[in-house]
Structure formats: structure tokens, C-alpha cells
Specification:
about 170 residues, alpha+beta, two-stranded antiparallel sheet, elongated
Length: about 170
């Protein structure tokens, strides 16, 4: 633990037990490569309890393009099922028509959802990415005091319990 550049903890005023959160994560994850009895290469990862507690708690949102691809791709697959059913020969009976109607409705719902998302989703997606990036920048600046089990931002007098990390980063 390097204490040269560590800020002092607002709770105890000391620097000897202070470490950056990113350094704790880097030192708390160990990756091991090994070979099985059947000569298969495997990788195992071990994560310390503290590193798990302090990991960045948010998943990166899907990009706008990936979201659209998922929606329209699902609609396309649904159409691939519906169209052959509609043009099938020997198609009679209630079961056949109910499958065609259900598949058609499923396709229509995804297409409508895709168009609505295309119109309204871009702005929302941009806001999600900005919120994610702001929280990530904040998390990268955090320090942890091993003595007091608190997180803090250098220059601020406030401390946060690691269990409150998610809500702290969200605001």
C-alpha cells in the first residue's frame, strides 16, 4: 500500500490505511491459468471479499445501435416464422390460424416497439450513457480507509460505507 500520495481519511485523519479503490480492485483479483487432466487450458479467477465490495456496481448500458438491432432482429426472426406459415399449403384448422395470428401479433408488437424506441430512445440512451460515465469517473477517484471501512473522495469531508456505494455514485 503506497501512502506517499494518499489523501488523509476524513474519518480518522490518517493516511497509513488509505488506498485508492482502483488499486484495491487491481490487487484483489488473481487470475490463474491451468491445464486439466484432459489437456484443456482453463482460467480461474479469484476475487477478494474487499474487491467484490468495492467493484463498480453498474453495467454499461447497451448502445443505441445494439438496442435497435436487438429489437428489429427479433421482429425479423418473428416474420421469418410468420410468413412461411401464412403461405403454407394444407393450412386449415383453428390451430393453424391461431399460430399465424400469434406470430403476426408478436412481429407487429416488436416492430411498433422498435419504431417508438427509434423515436424516443436515442435521448434516453444518451442520458443513460452520461449517467454511467459520470458514476465511473467518480468511482475512479474514490479512496478507501481500511481502518474505518469507509470510502471517500479526496477533498471532501464526507465518508460513505461500501454498502452505500451504488447510491453514492448515482447522485
Amino acid at each position: 500500500m503506497s501512502i506517499k500520495n494518499s489523501p488523509s481519511c476524513p474519518s480518522c485523519g490518517q493516511i497509513d490505511a488509505v488506498q485508492s479503490v482502483t488499486a484495491i480492485i487491481q490487487s484483489g483479483i488473481t487470475t490463474t491459468n491451468y491445464q486439466t487432466a484432459y489437456n484443456q487450458n482453463r482460467t480461474a479467477e479469484s476475487v477478494s471479499f474487499l474487491a467484490k465490495r468495492l467493484m463498480f456496481p453498474f453495467k454499461k448500458p447497451l448502445s443505441f445501435g445494439a438496442s435497435l438491432a436487438l429489437i428489429f432482429g427479433t421482429a425479423f426472426l418473428s416474420m421469418c416464422v410468420t410468413l412461411p406459415l401464412m403461405s403454407g399449403s394444407g393450412s386449415n384448422g383453428l390451430a393453424y390460424y391461431s399460430v399465424v395470428v400469434c406470430s403476426g401479433l408478436f412481429t407487429l408488437i416488436f416492430l411498433i416497439f422498435g419504431v417508438v424506441y427509434l423515436i424516443t430512445g436515442k435521448q434516453n440512451n444518451d442520458q443513460q450513457h452520461e449517467t454511467y460515465n459520470r458514476a465511473l469517473r467518480k468511482w475512479q477517484q474514490l479512496y478507501y480507509c481500511h481502518r474505518d471501512d469507509v470510502l471517500f473522495m479526496p477533498g471532501e469531508n464526507r465518508t460513505v460505507n461500501p454498502e452505500q456505494l451504488r447510491s453514492y455514485l448515482a447522485h
